[in-house]
From TrEMBL:
PROSITE patterns: IMP_1 (PS00629). One of its GO terms (biological process) is signal transduction. GO terms for molecular function: inositol monophosphate 1-phosphatase activity; metal ion binding. SUPFAM superfamilies: Carbohydrate phosphatase (SSF56655). Gene3D superfamilies: Fructose-1,6-Bisphosphatase, subunit A, domain 1 (3.30.540.10). This is Inositol monophosphatase. Mg(2+) binds at E78, D94, L96, D97. It holds the Pfam family Inositol_P. Its cofactor is Mg(2+). Keywords: Hydrolase, Magnesium, Metal-binding.
Length: 275
């Protein structure tokens, strides 16, 4: 569902989108140039997340690009945390979405830059590694891919949907996650768990994915990925099936896709005891 673009009329959305695209393109260039070589892999946190020197270099380039053009804006970066605090305009940066995949040679990764204004995502750009494609969305104005307007072609399918599950590392060992995963497997012809939401977004745009389930996911790529899904025609709903108007207020469990796909998932999860 697309919202009234007037809610961000004070933003120079075209300029923001252009800078976001350029920042993502630069990050992808770094990642692709270093893919497959031996990396210094550091464990980040107790749940198996990792970081490499490529994450840090790509982040440095994105932050420099944003700060040079918008020095008064805040940046929330995946590795560096909060930079230049104090603005209503906050850029969320995931310089290498899918670092675990990247670090061990699986080419399922990307990059994401999202601008939030007073807490709400209004501009997003994400890049896909193996094609170099960049999808961009401005709230209320749809999606472009590589600067050209894009309409998702998704012919109706018979049978079960293809779905993806996005979770945070903190859900490991969570009983609710076990129930959720079991129901999704039962209700999906295929369940993707790529640990790279940006890759799943492109899969959705190309019609290979019907819906996304989001459970306790808080990554810096999340809001931008959901904004692009919504601008491509997906409806974002909570576990009660009601639309989520402000993506910044995302509940613990949510869904993105056509209600014809997501509402049956909601109905199936309720009696199963999922959150």
């Amino acid at each position: 569902m697309r919202d009234d673009p007037g809610v961000h009329a004070d933003l120079n959305a075209d300029l923001y989108a252009d800078v976001a695209r350029r920042a993502v393109a630069a990050a992808l260039e770094v990642a692709r140039a270093n893919f497959g070589r031996t990396l210094d892999i550091e464990v980040k946190g107790p749940r198996g997340d990792v970081v490499t020197e490529v994450d840090r270099e790509a982040e440095r380039i994105i932050v420099a690009t944003l700060h040079e053009r918008f020095p008064g804006h805040t940046v929330e970066a995946e590795e560096s945390g909060t930079l230049f605090a104090g603005s209503d305009h906050v850029w969320f940066v995931d310089p290498l979405d899918g670092t675990n995949n990247y670090a061990y040679g699986l080419p399922v990764y990307g990059a994401a830059v999202t601008l939030c204004h007073r807490g709400e995502p209004v501009v997003a750009a994400i890049g896909e590694a193996h094609t170099g494609d960049i999808a961009c969305a401005v709230r209320g104005r749809g999606v472009t891919v590589n600067g050209r307007p894009f309409e998702r072609a998704a012919p109706p399918r018979a049978g079960l949907p293809a779905t993806a599950l996005w979770t945070g590392y903190q859900t490991q060992g969570d009983d609710h996650l076990g129930v959720l995963t079991s129901v999704l497997h039962e209700r999906s012809r295929r369940l993707f768990s790529t640990w790279a939401p940006t890759a799943d977004v492109f899969l959705y745009l190309r019609g290979g994915l019907d819906a996304v389930t989001v459970y306790q996911c808080t990554g810096t790529e999340l809001l931008g990925s959901l904004l692009i899904l919504r601008e491509a025609g997906a409806e974002v709903t909570g576990a009660d099936g009601r639309p989520v108007r402000n993506l910044a207020d995302l509940p613990e469990l949510s869904f993105a896709g056509s209600p014809a796909v997501t509402l049956p998932l909601v109905d199936a999860l309720s009696p199963a005891g999922a959150p």
